[in-house]
Amino acid sequence: LMDRRSIIKHAGIAGVLAAGAAPAVHAQAAIRWRLASSFPKSLDTIFGGADVFSKAVKAMSGGKFEISVHAGGELMPPFGVVDGVQQGTVEMAHTVPYYFYGKNPAFALGSAVPFGFNARQMNAWMLHGNG
Fold it and tell me: CB-based burial of residue 36 (10 Å sphere; 0-12 exposed, 13-18 middle, 19+ buried)?
């Protein structure tokens, strides 16, 4: 008797979720964000990473989330991108955190510190060590 109630309960929850979740996803409006980069288009390997990211997000969201990528100097000065995000001028910045060490020394930890973490250690700290 207990197993039957559990099955009915779970089937009911699954039915509600299936019926209620799908229409909510289709009703969402498209999202359009702007990304300001610190890098010029001439640095195609670095700047190009933001473009690849933008295209991947658009593809994974079925076109519902678009990110327009702007090279350094197009929307704001290259070293003003963090201020742009903080002030709400743009939604995203593509930069290197150590450029902004003067704002807060903790920014250096997100990029490169001599004798600092290697990639595996950084991932462990960020994902499991409250970094």
Answer: buried
Contact of 83 with 43, CB cutoff 8 Å: no
CB 34 within 8 A of CB 91: yes
CB 91 within 8 A of CB 36: no
pTM summary value: 0.68
Q: What is the pLDDT along the chain (131 residues), one digit of tens a residue?
A: 555 555 555 555 555 444 455 555 556 789 999 999 999 999 999 999 999 999 999 999 999 999 999 999 999 999 999 999 999 999 999 999 888 989 888 888 777 777 788 888 888 988 998 76
Contact, 91 vs 84, CB < 8 A?
no
